[in-house]
Amino acid sequence: MKLKVCGMKYVENIQQVADLQPDYLGFIFYEKSKRNFEGIIPEFPNSIKKTGVFVNEYIEIVISLVEEYRLEAIQLHGDESVEYVTDLKNQLTERRALFIEENKQIKKKKNQHYISENEVEVIKVFGIKDEFNFDVLKPYLEVVDFFLFDTKGKERGGNGTKFDWSVLEKYPFDIPFFLSGGIGLDDVEEVQKIMKSDLPIYALDVNSQFESKPGVKKIEELEKFKKNVITNVVK
């Protein structure tokens, strides 16, 4: 079971969370978010995938930030269409091919931004409250790597509340997904229960329930959560 910690903002806190070895660290590039990221991402183990979170952003800006921060995953948290996702992936593939071709030359250039050698994962987010029509996912099945199900609320993520997980019992597809939306330490038993189901849950995504203030994660609570849920859950 994978763990993604989203809404990272401050260098020291990023380093502390990275020491816990989550599988993904999420950086929000959305000016309206209280956790909007601007600055430098410190070095941390390559096993942790840097994930950029975007909301209806111009593709050119997404690609620019992928290259600047060497992002390995993109989380689309807006109303991005299938055409948008397809175009984005095609452009990323072209830039990756160019990078591989010029790899040696690019690495010799100091401070040169470049795209990851690995294919960038694309995660498409959908908000759920008390019900959801899974048919809306069908057009995306061939163009995304994962879905992420979050609580539908006023904010584009980070609302701090859970949706009705029983809605997921009707999930009809094989493509794996991230489970998000107000997950905290109080949900350990509930999380363990849903993890024992046949649902293709790939990762748990946590954010606001582990914060002392927006963008600052509580390290001890995250460590306890990872130990009690992620480490001990065997699918």
UniProtKB/TrEMBL annotation:
Catalytic activity: N-(5-phospho-beta-D-ribosyl)anthranilate = 1-(2-carboxyphenylamino)-1-deoxy-D-ribulose 5-phosphate
Any Pfam family: PRAI
Keywords: Amino-acid biosynthesis, Aromatic amino acid biosynthesis, Isomerase, Tryptophan biosynthesis
One example GO MF annotation: phosphoribosylanthranilate isomerase activity
GO biological process: one example: L-tryptophan biosynthetic process
Organism this protein belongs to: Polaribacter atrinae
Keyword Amino-acid biosynthesis in annotation: yes
Family: Belongs to the TrpF family.
N-(5'phosphoribosyl) anthranilate isomerase (PRAI) domain segment(s): 4-111, 112-227
HAMAP family tied to this protein: PRAI (MF_00135)
SUPFAM superfamilies named among the record's database cross-references: Ribulose-phoshate binding barrel (SSF51366)
Top-level class of the enzyme under EC nomenclature: isomerase
Enzyme Commission no: 5.3.1.24
Keyword Signal among record annotations: no
Biochemical pathway: Amino-acid biosynthesis; L-tryptophan biosynthesis; L-tryptophan from chorismate: step 3/5
Record-given protein name: N-(5'-phosphoribosyl)anthranilate isomerase
